[in-house]
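Record 1 of the preview.
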Amino acid sequence: MASLHELRARGQSVWLDEIRREWLTQGELARWIERGVTGVTSNPTIFERAITTSPAYDAALQAHLARDPEMETTALYEALAVEDIRMAADLLRPVYEATGGTDGFVSLEVSPHLAHDTGGTIAEARRLWHAVNRPNLMIKVPATPAGIPAIEDLIAEGVNVNVTLIFSPAHYEAAAEAYWRGLRRRAEAGRDLRSVASVASFFVSRIDTAVDRALEALGTPEARALLGRIALAVAKRIYRRFRERFLPHAFPDLAARGARAQRVLWASTSTKNPAYSDVKYVEGLIGPDTVNTMPLATLQAFEDHGRVPGDTILEGWEEAEADLRALDRLGIDLEEILERLQAEGVDAFRRSYETLLEALERKRTTVLATARPID
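->
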């Protein structure tokens, strides 16, 4: 059995990659914070699952519609989401204060319909930032070509950003550079650098799912030897680049003014292949200045039978690079796969968002029909 505090001792924060109204109101999140959780992430899929399957939102839904029967479905979703994010942020505020603003964040994502709209992303991020009105909020912005300039502008304005849907080293470089440029602009404007924070969220397990499919199709011994190895190999390459970019000696002028490193956040850490350990993407990604955001099932599995053997993200860098070279020799275009995964991620969040709005519209219709007597 392992404790989340053991990961903390290694310099890694553990965030919960789920949010539900009843966890906020009935003490579940508070209990996880006591056990070592120091942040929460959400996305359209998480909210779709929570709001459409839980009766805990019904009273709030009815209250909003009682005040404004004409409230649009998107506004209704946003109101419910903002309430959840505020409650989670307040529960995590002591962590934020105790760590001097380094940890204790809650993430809320802009609409996936804006993934290819820079101006729309900036406008919605600003609006959500002010609507939640908590210093330990992070706005999630995808690392798409349109998202990258939005990230720079938001950081320059002092909006905390969780850069999401990073699958490749190229995505990571763009996200890190946007953060750095935003910090530089903020510094040149004479504004406080200590009050802004960011993480770069690298999606791990989906890479093995996609690459393993290509390796299985080849079916050679050389291909099969790489099964389940590529996601961690890419993660190690990204972490190595993080250390080159963001250890204090790499940006001494900004660090001296209080600028924080943009930590790497390991996302999509639930294991998709039942042939692999259900804590594979926890045990293999332990190390300083990182975050691992886990769904509830992965958190529970880690506490039940996980191990903390050391700083595993710092180990095996040469083997990781050898695995990536071997993949290239097999003729598998990793960059093409990773670009496709980002596009699929945007599409998946968009579908979840649309499913959520459709379900809310049905609930809205039911509530209004019940509330208004028929003549």
